[in-house]
Specification:
alpha+beta; Jelly Rolls
Length: 943
C-alpha cells in the first residue's frame, strides 16, 4: 500500500473518531444555488420548490452582485421617499437625463434593481447519522422575509432584519439527497417598518434581495444549548450565566455544565468551574454564577477587555458546546450623566445609516467594521448610533474589541409611510425584533444603548414606547433604554435623544444661532434641556454639507454607482466651472469643519450634558444626496481636515474658551474664560494649562493658568485670559491657543483698526445706479456699488438664500431650506482683500458679510468674468455666483459688492473693514477690470 493511501485512511479514521466526540457538525451551503425571480408571486402556487431553475447565483451574495434584476429606468419603483417624483422634469436635472443612461440624483444607483420574491434552490446530501440529530438551517443577514421548503414541504417563514433566520428542519430531512428551497421577499407588503428606515431603504444600503452572511446547516445532539445570557457584576467580579437548554429526549437527564473563560486580548485563562443540573424534556433554564477572580479586568473605551466564555454541556458524552463574548462592565445613569463602571462618560458619537457603497449591504466580517471604528476613534469619537437598523454580529465583535459604545435600534423609522402604536403590523414586528436583537447580541459589552428606532409618527406612539421602555428596563439591565431617537422625552426613558441642543435645527434656516447671531463661543445648551434630570444626547447634530468630491467617483467599483455625482459634475461643466471642482470641495470643506467645531464645542460647554450624535462623520449618499461627512462613504479622508486637526475639538479632553465675540477693534480687551471638558481615563492631578495669543507664528502674549487638579467632567473653570489689543493701525488675524498636557485647541479672532472711516474721494459709493452714477461711470469714473439682502432681482440671485453656514442636510430633502450656498471661495492675495485678512474660504470674519448679502448670479454674463469673491453654490444648481466682482462700464470701472458695506457700520466692524479694503483697491492702479458689460446687463441685477 502506498504512503499516500495510508495517510488518507488514517485521516478518515481520525475524522470519524473526532466526529463521534464533536457535538456539532456543519455543512457549508455557500456556493452555487439555482435561482429564479418571481415578480408575479407564482412560485408557491406553481410549486417552484420542486423545480429546477436554469439560472444560478452565488450565496452568500445579493441579487445585484449576481447580476440579477432589472435595469434602472425612470419608472423604477424605489423603497424610500422621493420628494420630487417628477425630478426628471426639473430644469436642474433635465439636461443630463438620458432614458438609456439614467442618472438618479437622490442616492447611489444600483446596477440592477428588483423588489419582490425570488427563489433559491439547492440540492444537498444529508449523512445518515444526522437523521437522529437536531438540524438547523442558518441564514445570516437575509433581506428580507424568508420562507423555507425542504423536500417540497413548507417549514416556516421569518422576517427579522437584524438577526439570523434559524430554522429547525430536523423533521423534514431524509438520508441522502434533499432539496432546500428558499423564497426571499424584500417588499414591505406584509410589514411596513417605514419606507425610509435604513434597514430597508434605497437611500443608503439599498433594498437588496439575498443572503449575505453565513449559509449553513448545523446538526446537534438531541440535547443542546439554545442560548447563553451573561450578566456581569463589576462589584462582585462575577458573571451570572443563564443557560437555555432544550432537551429533545423524553427522559430526565443529569448533566454537568463545564464553564471556562479567557481574556481574549491577553489569553489569560479563568479557572474552569463545574455545575450539576437536572433537566427535564423540553425547555430548561439553568442559572449559575461564575467567579472571574480578584484580578478580573473591566471593559470600557480605554480598556476593551473582552472575555470569551465557553459552556460545555455533558452527560455521558459531550452534548453541546457554545461560546459567547462578554465584558465585565456596568453602563448606566448617575443624574444627567452616563457612567461606565462608576466613571463619567460623555458620548461623542456619529450615526451609521447602513452606508456600504461597494456591496449595498453591511459586512458580516470583522475587518470592514474595524476600518469603520478605527476612523471613529481616530476622530476622537467613542460612540456609534445605528439609525433605524441593527448591524450584524461582526460589528459588535469589532466594537467590543475596540471599545466603542453602540446604540442599536429595531430596524424601524415608523414615520411617513406608517405609524407606531396604531395597531399596524409594525408594532408586533418591533416587539419581536427587539427580542431577537437582545437574545442574539445582548452579551456584547459594546451594546450599551437601545431604542425602538427613529423619530416615530402616529397619534399613539408615546403609549407604545412607554410600554416598550418599561418592559426592557425590567427585563434586562445590561444597557440603558429610550423610546426613540429624536422624540418623545418620555418620563420612562433612561435617556433622551433630542434635537434641540444644536446650532442649526430643522426649519430654522437663516434664523439659527450660527446664521443670525454674532460670532462667539460663550453659549451652551443649558436652556434647551428638559428639567426632568434624565441624560440628554443631542440628536443628529451638524448635518453640514460640502461640495462633492468628483475624484471619489472612481472608488465605486461595486454594485452601487454614483450616477448622482456624474450628474452634478456634468452640471458644473455645463456652467463653465469644471476646473473649480477641487477648489469648491476644499473651500466648502473648511467651512464645514468650522461648523462642526462650533457644534461640538457648544455640546462640550454644556453643564450636565450626556453627549452628542453627529449626522454624520461620513457622507450620507441618500435623501437627495447629503454630503455631510468630513469623510466619504468609504470612511476615508477628503483632504481638508485631518484626524489630528479634528481631535483638537473632539476628544476625551478638549480645552475650551468662552469668548463673547471674535471680532475686535484695536484698543479693546480680549476676555476669555478658559475651561475644559475632560472625560479621560482618570483625573489630572497636577497639570499646568498654558495659553498663547499668536499672529501666524509670532507670539503676541502668553501665560499659564497655574497648577490645576482637573476632575472628570466638563465646565471645569481653569482661569481667565485678558489681553488688550494695541493700536497698530492694521487689520490682523490672531489665534488664541490653549494647551492642557497633550491636548491643544485654538480659536481665530480678528482685530481691526479703530479709525477705519477713511474714504476714497475719487470713488463714488452708492446703493443704486441712478442716471447720474451711470453717466459718471460712462465718463470714466470709479464706482463701488453696495447691495445687500433684498437688493438683487430674483432671477439674478435674489432668490438664493445666502447665509454664513454651509447647507443644512441638502436642499432637495428639506424643501429648499436656506442657506442654499456653501460659503465663499477667493484668492486671499487679491489686492481687493489686502486690508481684509482672509483665507481662501469662509471663516468667522465673513459671517457679517454673508448675513447681509445677496448672491449675484453671473450665468448670463461672459464666462471669462471671474469674481473676486465667489459664493459656492449648491451642487444641484451649480450657478456662477459672486459676492464681489468688477467690470468696465463705458470708460469707467465698477466694483460690485453683494454684501452691504454701507448701513449700520457703527455696529459692524467687519463691514467697515471690508469697505476700507475695497476702497483701498479702487484707488490703486490694480483696479482695472478686464471685462466690459453693458449698462442694461448691470441694471438687470438690481431690483
Amino acid at each position: 500500500m502506498r504512503l499516500a493511501q495510508i495517510f488518507l485512511i488514517l485521516t478518515l479514521v481520525f475524522a470519524l473518531f473526532s466526529c463521534s466526540e464533536n457535538p456539532i457538525e456543519t455543512i457549508d451551503l455557500s456556493g452555487e444555488w439555482q435561482f429564479q425571480m418571481d415578480p408575479d408571486d407564482r412560485g408557491e402556487r406553481e410549486n417552484w420548490f420542486e423545480k429546477d431553475f436554469s439560472e444560478t447565483v452565488q450565496l452568500p451574495g445579493s441579487m445585484v452582485e449576481n447580476g440579477k434584476g432589472y435595469d434602472v429606468a425612470l419608472k423604477t419603483k424605489w423603497t424610500g421617499s422621493i420628494l420630487q417624483p417628477d425630478w426628471f422634469q426639473d430644469p436642474n436635472y433635465a439636461p443630463y437625463e438620458d432614458s438609456l443612461d439614467i442618472k438618479f440624483p437622490f442616492w447611489l444607483q444600483p446596477e440592477k434593481k428588483y423588489t419582490g420574491a425570488a427563489w433559491y434552490n439547492k440540492k444537498i446530501t444529508i449523512p445518515e447519522n444526522w437523521i437522529e440529530r437536531t438540524v438547523f438551517l442558518n441564514l445570516e443577514r437575509v433581506h428580507w422575509q424568508s420562507a423555507i421548503w425542504i423536500n417540497s414541504k413548507k417549514v416556516d417563514k421569518q422576517n427579522s432584519l437584524a438577526t439570523p433566520h434559524i430554522y429547525n428542519i430536523s423533521s423534514f430531512l431524509k438520508t441522502g439527497e434533499n432539496v432546500i428551497s428558499i423564497c426571499i421577499d424584500n417588499r414591505t407588503k406584509d410589514i411596513d417598518v417605514g419606507e425610509n428606515s435604513h434597514s430597508i431603504s434605497d437611500h443608503t444600503q439599498s433594498n437588496w434581495n439575498g443572503i449575505v452572511g453565513n449559509v449553513s446547516l448545523q446538526s446537534k445532539r438531541k440535547t443542546y444549548i439554545e442560548n447563553i445570557e451573561v450578566y456581569p457584576d463589576i462589584h462582585k467580579k462575577t458573571a451570572t450565566i443563564k443557560l437555555n437548554v432544550f432537551n429533545a429526549s423524553v427522559e430526565n437527564l443529569s448533566v454537568k455544565a463545564f464553564v471556562s473563560a479567557r481574556l481574549k486580548n491577553t489569553g489569560q485563562n479563568i479557572e474552569k468551574k463545574i455545575f450539576d443540573f437536572g433537566i427535564v424534556p423540553g425547555q430548561n433554564i439553568l442559572k449559575m454564577i461564575f467567579d472571574l477572580g480578584e484580578d478580573a479586568q473591566l471593559w470600557d473605551e480605554f480598556h476593551p477587555n473582552v472575555y470569551e466564555l465557553t459552556v460545555s454541556l455533558k452527560n455521558k458524552q459531550l452534548l453541546d458546546k457554545k461560546t459567547v463574548d462578554f465584558g465585565l462592565r456596568e453602563f448606566g445613569n448617575n443624574g444627567r450623566r452616563f457612567e461606565i463602571n462608576g466613571r463619567p462618560v460623555f458620548l461623542r458619537g456619529t450615526l451609521e445609516c447602513a452606508i456600504f457603497p461597494k456591496t449595498g449591504y453591511p459586512p458580516t466580517r470583522i475587518a470592514p467594521w474595524e476600518k469603520v471604528f478605527t476612523a471613529v476613534k481616530n476622530h476622537g469619537l467613542n460612540h456609534v448610533r445605528f439609525h433605524s437598523w441593527c448591524p450584524p454580529e461582526a460589528a459588535f465583535e469589532a466594537a467590543d474589541k475596540m471599545g466603542i459604545y453602540l446604540q442599536v435600534e429595531c430596524s424601524s423609522w415608523a414615520n411617513q409611510s406608517t405609524q407606531l402604536g396604531s395597531g399596524f403590523p409594525v408594532d408586533d414586528f418591533i416587539w419581536e425584533e427587539s427580542r431577537h436583537i437582545v437574545q442574539e447580541y445582548g452579551n456584547h459589552p459594546s451594546f450599551v444603548m437601545m431604542a425602538y428606532g427613529n423619530e416615530p409618527g402616529g397619534p399613539r406612539y408615546s403609549e407604545f414606547l412607554s410600554e416598550f421602555v418599561n418592559y426592557w428596563k425590567g427585563k434586562d439591565d445590561r444597557r440603558v433604554y429610550t423610546g426613540a431617537s429624536g422624540w418623545p422625552a418620555l418620563q420612562e426613558n433612561d435617556f433622551h435623544v433630542l434635537p434641540q441642543p444644536r446650532i442649526q435645527g430643522w426649519g430654522e434656516e437663516l434664523n439659527s444661532i450660527i446664521n443670525s447671531q454674532r460670532p462667539s463661543t460663550d453659549f451652551d445648551w443649558s436652556d434647551r434641556l428638559p428639567d426632568d434630570g434624565i441624560p440628554v444626547v443631542s440628536h443628529e447634530i451638524g448635518q453640514w454639507c460640502v461640495y462633492p468630491n468628483f475624484k471619489e467617483i472612481e472608488k465605486y467599483s461595486g454594485v452601487l454607482k454614483p450616477k448622482n455625482f456624474e450628474l452634478f459634475r456634468e452640471s458644473l461643466n455645463a456652467h463653465h466651472m469644471g476646473e473649480l471642482a477641487d477648489s469648491f470641495l476644499l473651500a466648502s470643506g473648511k467651512l464645514q469643519a468650522l461648523c462642526y467645531k462650533a457644534d461640538i464645542e457648544a455640546a462640550l460647554r454644556t453643564p450636565g450634558f450626556a453627549g452628542f450624535q453627529l449626522l454624520d462623520l461620513h457622507d450620507f449618499p441618500g435623501q437627495g444626496t447629503a454630503l455631510v461627512g468630513i469623510l466619504d462613504p468609504f470612511w476615508e479622508e477628503k483632504g481638508y481636515i485631518s484626524p489630528e486637526e479634528y481631535r483638537r475639538f473632539c476628544n476625551t479632553t478638549v480645552p475650551l474658551a468662552r469668548l463673547e465675540k471674535r471680532i475686535f477693534t484695536e484698543g479693546e480687551i480680549l476676555n476669555a474664560t478658559i475651561e475644559v471638558a475632560h472625560f479621560g481615563e482618570q483625573a489630572f492631578e497636577n497639570i499646568n494649562p498654558l495659553w498663547e495669543l499668536k499672529e501666524k507664528e509670532n507670539t503676541i502674549a502668553e501665560g499659564t493658568l497655574g497648577g490645576q487638579k482637573i476632575p472628570l467632567g466638563n465646565t471645569t473653570q481653569l482661569g481667565q485670559v485678558q489681553v488688550q489689543f494695541q493700536k497698530e493701525n492694521r487689520p490682523r488675524k490672531l489665534t488664541l491657543e490653549v494647551t492642557i498636557g497633550d491636548f491643544v485647541n485654538s480659536w481665530g479672532i480678528w482685530v481691526y483698526p479703530e479709525n477705519n472711516s477713511a474714504q476714497n474721494e475719487s470713488v463714488k459709493v452708492v446703493e443704486k445706479l441712478d442716471k447720474t452714477t451711470v453717466q459718471y461711470l460712462k465718463d470714466g469714473g470709479k464706482v463701488l456699488l453696495s447691495l445687500g439682502q433684498g437688493k438683487t432681482t430674483p432671477d439674478m440671485g435674489g432668490n438664493i438664500g445666502v447665509g454664513f453656514s454651509s447647507i443644512f442636510w441638502n436642499t432637495a430633502w428639506t424643501n429648499n431650506q436656506k442657506p442654499h450656498t456653501l460659503g465663499i471661495l477667493c484668492n486671499p492675495e487679491h489686492p481687493a482683500l489686502e486690508l481684509f485678512p482672509t483665507e481662501f474660504y469662509s471663516s468667522w470674519q465673513w459671517q457679517d458679510a454673508m448675513s447681509h448679502a445677496d448672491a449675484i448670479q453671473l450665468d448670463s454674463f461672459p464666462k471669462d468674468l471671474k469674481p473676486i469673491v465667489r459664493i459656492v453654490d449648491n451642487w444641484v444648481t451649480n450657478r456662477r455666483l459672486a459676492l464681489i466682482f468688477e467690470t468696465k462700464v463705458g470708460e469707467g470701472s465698477l466694483l460690485i459688492s453683494g454684501a452691504d458695506i454701507v448701513n449700520n457700520l457703527e455696529n459692524r466692524p467687519e463691514a467697515r473693514q471690508l469697505r476700507i479694503s475695497l476702497l483701498n483697491y479702487t484707488k490703486s492702479d490694480k483696479f482695472n477690470p478686464a471685462i466690459q458689460l453693458p449698462e442694461k446687463q448691470i441694471k438687470a441685477i438690481l431690483k
